[in-house]
């Protein structure tokens, strides 16, 4: 027998599926505000549909976008104007990342797909002096704070979905077709590792089941 809470959750799932919006792209403008107005070289790790790489290209001389998925990368290439200074590469991070150095390194909703320590060390090594690392990540909800923030996001998520789709049923954007996986590590665990590898790093839990990490390399 289906209980009332199950029916409500089912209805909410169907509503969200009909009014999709991209929680990762929601943070793209926020990321740009953490970056210098102009920079030379940027690397976007796990670039998916290429939306962030194209945004970075409005400020950079050169953007390298790396993703493990060849099909999605081909679609990202097709969606990118030929004149945009973005080079897409299919490779497995962190081992297959280009060497750098980079003035900007971004990684959105990808870090939980990678071995955490190895990836953070690889990012640190690739940053130029004074360079900026910005991660938008996904963490497993464990603490009361994690669950409270997640619960607060539920009605907001539906409201934003309704607003962005103008109340009409919509298709998922290309960016939401990328492979996903549930995060295994919680925010406290990620923060502990990040502080060890990136001294002075700033981390914050965010709405819509994300956290942010910002680190600047010594000039
Ligand atoms: C949830 S999507 C996020 C994509 C994009 N950053 C965004 O914000 O829309 C995760 C992406 O990470 C990529 N990915 C997963 N493991 C990877 C790895 N080891 N190396 C490179 N990319 C990887 C997937 O192919 C997918 O495009």
| Oligomeric organization of the protein chains | single chain
Number of helices: 7
CATH top level label of the domain at 38-139 and 182-216: Alpha Beta
Question: How many strands in all?
Answer: 7
Structural class: alpha/beta
Mean pLDDT: 94
The CATH homologous superfamily of the domain at 38-139 and 182-216 is named Vaccinia Virus protein VP39
The biggest beta sheet is recorded as: 7 strands, mixed
Principal-axes shape call: globular
Instruction: Give the low-confidence spans.
Output: none
N- to C-terminal separation?
Answer: 62 Å
Q: What's the helical proportion of residues?
A: 25-40%
Order of strands, widest sheet: 3-2-1-4-5-7-6
Protein name: Methyltransferase domain-containing protein
Keywords: Methyltransferase, S-adenosyl-L-methionine, Transferase
Domain Methyltransferase type: 43-135
GO molecular function, one term: S-adenosylmethionine-dependent methyltransferase activity
């Amino acid at each position: 027998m289906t209980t009332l809470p199950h029916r409500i959750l089912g209805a909410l799932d169907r509503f969200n599926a009909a009014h999709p919006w991209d929680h990762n792209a929601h943070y793209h403008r926020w990321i740009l505000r953490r970056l210098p107005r102009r920079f030379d070289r940027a690397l976007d790790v796990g670039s998916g549909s290429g939306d962030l790489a194209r945004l970075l290209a409005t400020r950079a001389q050169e953007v390298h976008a790396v993703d493990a998925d060849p099909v999605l990368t081909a679609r990202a290439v097709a969606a990118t104007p030929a004149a945009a200074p973005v080079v897409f590469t299919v490779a497995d991070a962190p081992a297959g990342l280009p060497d750098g150095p980079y003035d900007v390194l971004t990684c959105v909703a990808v870090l939980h797909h990678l071995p955490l320590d190895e990836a953070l060390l690889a990012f640190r090594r690739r940053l130029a002096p004074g360079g900026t690392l910005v991660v938008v990540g996904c963490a497993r909800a464990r603490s009361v704070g994690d669950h409270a923030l997640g619960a607060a996001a539920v009605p907001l998520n539906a409201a934003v979905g309704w607003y962005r789709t103008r109340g009409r049923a919509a298709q998922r954007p290309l960016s939401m077709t990328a492979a996903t996986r549930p995060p295994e590590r919680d925010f406290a665990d990620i923060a502990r590792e990040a502080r060890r590898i990136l001294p002075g790093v700033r981390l914050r839990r965010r709405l819509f089941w994300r956290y942010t990490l910002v680190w600047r390399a010594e000039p």
